[in-house]
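Dear support,

I submitted the protein below through the web form. The confirmation email said the job was done, but the results page showed an empty box. After a refresh the structure appeared. I'm attaching both so you can tell me whether what I see now is the final result or a partial one.
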Amino acid sequence: MQSVTQIADQIVAREGGYVNDPDDPGGATNFGVTIHTMRRLGMDLTGDGKVTPADVKRLTRAQARDIFLRHYYHKPRIGDLPEPLQASVFDMYVNAGGNAVRLLQKLFAKMGFELSQDGAIGPQTIGIAHAAMRLAPDHLVDAYGIERRNYYYRLADRRRASRKYARRRSGGKGGWIIRAEEFMSAKYHLTEAQHRERTRAWG
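What the results page shows now:
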C-alpha cells in the first residue's frame, strides 16, 4: 500500500512544472499549485509584498507536496475515506477542489444513499463511504473513476477552451481523460474509437 506522501509525490509529478495557460482559469501554476492558492496562503516567495507569477515559478516540488498534503488531503479529511478511494479522490481534489467530493457524493446518491451533496467530507459522507465500500468493494473505485472521466467530458462539452485538456490535437485522449483512467481498472478504459466517438460533436 502506498503512503499518502508517495501519492502526493505522484500528483506533483503528474501535474508537471510551471505553466501559465490563458485558457486555464487557474492562471499561473507550478506543480499543480495555482497562483490563487498561493495568494490565499500568503506565499510571497520573492519577498516583494505580493504574490505574482514570479512567486509561482519559485515554488519547489517539496513545497507543492506540502500544500497538497496539508490543504488537499488532511484539511478536507480525505484520509477518513476508505483507503482504496483515497488516491483517486485526493488526485481529483488537487485538480477540481470540492467537486471531487461532490462527485463522490453524487455517486453515493445513485447507489441509493441519502446525503447532502455539499462537497465537504463530514461524518455523514464518511459513514456512507464506508458503507458503500462494504456494499461494492470490487466496483466502487472504478465507478468513481468513471464518474470522474464523465465529469471531465462534460466540462469540455460546455467550455470549448477546455477541450484541449480532454482531447489531443491528434484526436486521442487528453490529459484529463488519461488521468481519470489511471485510477480505474483497464477493462473500463475507453478505446480510442470510443473516445473519438464521445468527442466527435466537438468538431
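Response: this is the final, complete result; the empty box was a page-load delay. The radius of gyration is 18 Å.
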